[in-house]
Amino acid sequence: MPVRKEPSDKSELITELLFGECYTILNQEGNWFLVQNAADGYEGWIDFKQHFPVSEAYFSEWQVQQHPRTLNLVDFIYNNQNRIPLLLGSTLPFFVGNSVRLGEEEYSFAGQVSDLNIAPEAHFLQNIARLFLKAPYVWGGRTVFGLDCSGFVQQVYSLCHYQLPRDAWQQAAHGQEVHFASQTKPGDLAFFDNAEGRIVHVGLMLDGNQIIHAHGEVRIDTLDHQGIFNADRKRYTHQLRIIKRIFPNL
Question: Are residues 172 and 103 in the same domain?
Fold first, then answer.
């Protein structure tokens, strides 16, 4: 579901809501709701026609539980009346057996799901990140069909059941600092700033000082103490600001 900066279809996309996520309505203007994503606190406007209300009891229960995520690029939930498409990283509310509860309705799901009981491992995190390779860059996007740099990183970590904020500068406040590019481990996050010193980009480290990030598309480049070197363009494209380790034991 597109979430826009202003209450208009012409307004820029600032983020997206994926299936299974909850939000609260903060305000209404005409046919638009100002909403706040319950997972990351991000705010923006949605079209009232895409609003799906749930009870306060459902929302309260949803907030205190962890819910697995879909691992297939595209899949479906279904019941006798409906079939709903899901994208990689969608939340499966109250998933038990093969049952998903959406409001008062029950749906079946037979695809792959993330395991809430397994601690994240480096190879799993890298494999999840590579599922997004070649996904096009879309400002405000959070899906394999289009996403931005921080949306990509947020989705990868969500699939490891760690909730990062939405924007790169917010994500940079998480984790422990890694002082040298040569000391990075797979899963570390590298942040990059612009000429004014604002953090404007983020990528996820892989083995061998490689970094996977959304820049034109989700791609793999090389990182050193200076920044990201793009071999295709034969130049540095991003200036390194700081590296953070989210999972110390990864």
Answer: no
